[in-house]
Amino acid sequence: MRQPGAPNIIRIMAHPTADDVVTLDVDGPILRIGVNRPDANNLWNLEVIQGVSRAYRRLADDVTLRVGVVFGHGRHFTAGLDLASVAPLFATGEVGAILPEDGCDPWDFFGEPCPKPIVVAVHGSCNTLGIELILASQIAVASEDARFAQLEVARGIVPLGGATFRLPGRLGLAGTRYLLGAERFDAATALRLGLVSELVPAGRHVERAVALARVVAANAPQAVCAALASARAAERATRDAARQVIVETNASIVSSADATEGVAAFLERRPPVFRGA
Length: 277
Prior knowledge:
It contains ten helices and ten strands. It is of the alpha/beta class and 277 residues long. The chain has one domain (9-205, 213-268): 2-enoyl-CoA Hydratase, Chain A, domain 1 (Alpha-Beta Complex).
């Protein structure tokens, strides 16, 4: 329990180092979750995935916390998945090798999500799993410099965090275009299509996300969680059907020659040459 006169913000990782890939700050009823791999453009490796998953579980279990805010340290929210380190795990199809048993699924696709609301604060690049994190969350704020891309099909793989059904479902034909075309789009387009809730000037995204989190946190917590659970229940059948297709096809996709070429081209910074095999 916070002692009288203690500062309101408890710095769980007050001075993040290179080893602190996920930082946590408790700010009253808000849990700030920061991805901290700036030298790698905040690519999510296994450690980041599991760190964020466990942070979501902390938010779920702590009765004093009501809303989470996810952001990225450094110049970018995230460049996406760290393919070199994580792709072999995805190829196994074993979710337990990726999501820890003591965590929640940040993408609400293969596992159970945090039952409390999440606000995402985006700036710079927001690729692949970053978009899927937004789609699985309840509020998203983007800085005007943000740019987005759902790049998996350009790398010979498929999205594994729910973009296959949420992008078309939420954004309509434009969502299908960005899912299948792997094109980049800017923050103004993200706002117009409804991917994000608000645009703010560069550098103000976390501040605004926390402010919106406080608006949600001021409401009755049980009612908020019940309303969120009902909203999620409405898409459960669609989610489960989309997940089943991924489970049935992912192993063959990941082991294909095109997937090998896509990852190699990405790592070698060259255009891929896909042959449909």
